[in-house]
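Predict structure. Chain length: 751.
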Amino acid sequence: MRLEIQGMTCAACVSSVEMIVNKHESVKAVNVNLPLNSAAIQLHENAPISVTEEIIQKIKQGGFGASRPKQSKDRRTILEQHVSLEGRKAALALILALPTIYLTMFADDLGDFSGFDLRLLLAAIMTIPVYFWSGFSFITSAWKSIRRGGANMDVLIHLGTSVAFIWSCGVVLAGKYDSLPGVLVNAEHVFFDGIVFIIGFVLLGNYLESAAKLKATDAIHSLMQLQPNQARVVADDDFTEMIDVTLVKVGTLVKIKTGETIPIDGILEDCKASIDQSTMTGESYPVRKSSGDEVYGGTIVLDGTVLLRTNKVAEETLLANIISMVEDAQSGKAPIQRLVDKISAIFVPVVIILALVSGLFWATIGHDMIDNPMNSGYELALMVIISTLVIACPCALGLATPIALVIGTSVGAQNGLLIKGIDALESVNRCKLMVVDKTGTVTIGRPRVSHIEIIDCEVKEILSIAAALEQESVHPLASAIITSWSNVTTDRPEINDIRVMPGMGMVGEYSGQVVAAGNLELMLEVGVELDSEMKQRITKSTKKGISIVFVCQGAKLLGWMELSDRIRDSSKIAVKRAQQLGLEVVMLTGDNQQSAESIATQVGIERVISGVKPDEKAEQIQSLQSGGHKVIMIGDGINDAAALSIADVGIAMGAGSDIALDAADFVLIRNDLIDAVSSIELGNATMRRIRSNLGWAFSYNVIGIPLAMGLLLPFTGFLLPPAYAAAAMSLSSVSVVGNSLILRWWRPIAE
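Prediction complete.
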């Protein structure tokens, strides 16, 4: 379940929302995302239907807004309106800040007005709309936070500006009413300029931050806009009707005209067309599709009118799966971010205590130890308290991980590289061993029969027996043999009791004898005997770097078929780039050693694990892990599902498979090894941004808070004014967002 959350401003807010939601008995786990203003909630299986509304009410009672997810377009409009309002509030504060600082810092005595100091009175009038309108959200949010027993960024802002406002107004009133406390009557310093600059700079930072977050989510929003709202459905009488895409059922015939976007996944019928898949895969060139090929919703027909038979409903299309996967990934949290959230939960109370302790120190004994730059110890204490409260806002800490994750996963989705979560990013960054499956990964995966070696039969006979056996197999070699048979003959013997021999081939019974098609191990298993001359011929063939399927009847070897599979054009580039990244590349295959090494040599792979049966791939990964290696496994997501799941990072090529979506940590839309290496590079780039963001955020607080508390005052006379503290705080958040936005310019490896 996913909810939209309103009113969050920092990591402390995130912790508060998670605490509220976790208290509900039906909730199993929750992840709240600050940049996306959303909460991903996992419920127990027996959760009642009413639980969603109950959780929404609990969140609202906690002082936040909550609602069910809106349509992408509506959500975008609300976000844009929020950014615009933030901008107007910041503009008012900064416009009024200029005359306010002039009146408080530079203007000469302007005389009195009804007993009030006119200069200070005008400064107060300038400050009132800033405090009560521009800064109103800080006031309401702070009190909501206090009522729920927590403390967020807005508490610090509200405390700092309120203390300054009350003191400054007291000084203005003391000019006319000398019955007020002497500390106010004798005071010479007001903080109206600090108030307007604090609110102005914080709002400016919020505006820039909100605008950047809006830009950071452009990619996922653009994906949401890809699927059309309607589809042109063809009725039995060839009549077409536009209906809502959510009403289209599986098996419906849909017509798409030139230039239109395909509304839903399906199989082309009786047509050919060039399809622009760039929005889904990042491919710059159109892909030619013909009858029987699958096409995906969100791609564009470039030429001709096409008909497709739908094989998915709108909620289960590849595009819908991609959006769901990206949103889930963006809601994830790294262990370091969970630590940050825990720190943020106690951070604000600790800062308040530090501000009060430092203020008390400078008000009592500290001001006598220095050449006090203020009129009194109380004024010095107030400046220290205000600056400490303002500079310590934990916005940058709260944004450090999620903003980089949002941008990284969104950019990946735009280029057909789907990252399923922050755990995968952290893991891929630590891996030093990359294992690649051969068939369908290093090679294209569509082998063909290149030669048939006849020993004691005719071509038709060996092909017929092999095709009859392989019709029960789903192995890529099986389809190649059947295709070759269909080009030669239509005869196919009736073979009984066909069985799969895992990792070896197929066996059956024909005319009272065992027949088999498979590898050399299977031939020996069924009793075929080979003389030395035959062994030499077989050895010579295996050195060609091809796959061989032997065929026998009884104990007699009929011959063998040599099958070759073309190496992907990008495989050599991908292997080289992976090695440049410091990865050792290992090829895993069921082929014999000579054939496997021939392919590996052509693409630059030095280490080969051959003769591996499909059910042994996961064991091989475990074996490598037991040697102390963190392993990346790259496969097709179907035959390699177990190995992908058990690897530290699984990368599945070809997102059309639901198994790939479930088994792997990274899913690639295209079947291209170079995309696998690109996804590793993107993972590394995203983690670099997260680390630098966290380093900047922690360093900023470690340096900024002591400066605001007056650490350098005894040695240098330097004291950080509240306006400077506000500017520094805003700059830290903007810097974290800006650092993350660099990821938007990341591009995958060019072939």
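Summary: The chain has five domains: 2-69, 76-216+332-404+691-743, 233-315, 417-443+568-669, 448-564.
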